[in-house]
C-alpha cells in the first residue's frame, strides 16, 4: 500500500472539497425562479439547430446568470431574489425556433434576438411575460399572422417585428396599447389603417414596405402630442393627405414616399414647426408647393422628386438637402417632358387642379320693381 506524502494528501483534500462544492452547485438551483429559467433555457438550447458563433456553448448548469446573452437582476417583488431579467442574442446568426418553455421566463423585461435565423411563430406562452418592456425579434424568419400574443403584454412599450415574413391583417387593438415605438416594416402584411390609429401614444412608428392600402384616417391628428417619426414608405397609400397632418406639431420625420398619393400638399404641413425631414417622392402630387413648407425653421431635407408639382417657392432652393427632379416645375433641370405634364393636367386631378382658377361668376341681378316709365 502506497503512503502519500502529507502535502499531497492536503492538495487532494482541497481538490475533493472543490469538486464536491461544484457538484452541489450544479445539482441545486439558487432559487425556484432561476430553476424555471434553467428549464426554459435548456429547452430553448435544444431547439437551436445552428449556433455558428457559439453564443449558447456555455448554456449548461444551473448558474444561468453566467450564460452568454442572459442577464440577471433582483426581482421587482423581492430584491433578495435573483431572476433572469433580460435576453440579448442580437446578431448571433442562430437558427432554430422559440419553444413554449420560453414562457417560463416570467421576470423578463427585455427580449432581444434581432439579426438571427429564428423561424416559426412567437409562442402563445409569451402571454405570461407580464413584465416584458421591450420585444425585438426583428430581422429573422418568423412567419404566420401577426403575433397577437403581444396584445396581452401589459408592460410592453417597444415592439420591433420588422424584417420577417408575417402576413395578413394587423389587429386594430395594437393602436390601443400604450406603446412608445412600433416597428412592423418589411413584412407581408395586407391590411388598411383602422379608424383608431390615432389612439396610439407612440413616438415612433414605421409601417414601410407592407401593403397597408387606403388613406390615413383623420384620427391621426390625435397623435400630435407624442408622435416624433412616422415612416409610411411604399405601403400602398392612395387618395389625398388630410389637412389634419398639420396637427402633428412634434413630428421631426414624415415619409410617405413611393405611394399613390394625389392632390396638393396640405398647407397645414407648414405648421409642423419641428419637421426636419420631409419625403413625399414617387407619388402623384400636383399643384404648387406651399411656401410655408420650405420656410419651416428646422427643415433640412425635402425630397419631392417624381411627382407632378408645377411650382415651388424659391425658399425650397435654399434648403441644404432637396430633390425636385422629375416634376413639372418651369426652369428647373431634370423635369418631366412638357407633353407628359400637359397630358397629366388634361385629366381631372383629385384635390387640386393646377390649371388657372375659373373666372368669377357674373354679378347676380337683383330684382327691381318694374319702371313706371
TrEMBL record:
Location, primary (coarse class): membrane
Localization per Swiss-Prot or TrEMBL: Membrane; Secreted, Cell wall
UniProt xrefs under Gene3D superfamilies: Ribonuclease Inhibitor
Signal peptide: 1-23
UniProt domain Leucine-rich repeat-containing N-terminal plant-type: residue ranges: 39-72
InterPro entries the UniProt entry points to: Leu-rich_rpt (IPR001611), LRR_dom_sf (IPR032675), LRR_extensin-like_regulator (IPR051582), LRR_N_plant-typ (IPR013210)
Protein name, per record: Cell wall hydroxyproline-rich glycoprotein
Pfam families with a match to the protein in the record: LRR_1 (PF00560), LRRNT_2 (PF08263)
Region (Disordered): 354-373
One Gene Ontology term, aspect cellular component: membrane
Organism: Lactuca saligna (Willowleaf lettuce)
Regions of compositional bias (Pro residues) in chain numbering: 355-364
Keyword annotations from UniProtKB, A to Z: Cell wall, Cell wall biogenesis/degradation, Glycoprotein, Hydroxylation, Leucine-rich repeat, Membrane, Repeat, Secreted, Signal
An individual GO BP term: cell wall organization
